[in-house]
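Memo to structure team: turn this sequence into structure tokens by end of day. - J.P.
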Amino acid sequence: MSDSTTPAAPSPVVLEAWFDLQCPDCFQALDDLRALREKYGEGVDVRLRHFPLEKNKFAYAAAQAAEEAAEQGQGWPYVEALLARTADLGRQGEPLLIEVARELGLDAEEFDTALIDGRHLLAVDADEAEGKAIKVTGTPTYVVDGKRLDGGKSQDGLRDRIEEIIDGLRTAL
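Reply from structure team:
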């Protein structure tokens, strides 16, 4: 029997981060995401959404690899490690995806198999299609409370704007 006098904890605010994992700007955006997580803790749920850009040859495979990392319980650590090496990814390609998995102690053979069998294609394709539908054109782009914030051209002031939206939502609860 639950105690009806105890208020339920408010649901976290969902912040969708539309990233291309070969995008140097997305690597820079990690600082903002870390700051938001530090400030709001469990009050914000940052969700990675994939938007691989055509100009980045290995972004689509990287998105699939990130899905495999999430399946193995290391989604964000993998994303952060991979984004720290965007230049290497451009030079080394898919072997780097496996190397990063191995460095994090993930099942690298399973990563290789996942990239070959395409088990995460539907998830990446669904994100990409939804991104196009909501007019994501560059990365990073954020969506919070239905508001799309484009960081692809400039990230200046973006974290402040995200905080304003989150604070407004939390005040309304």
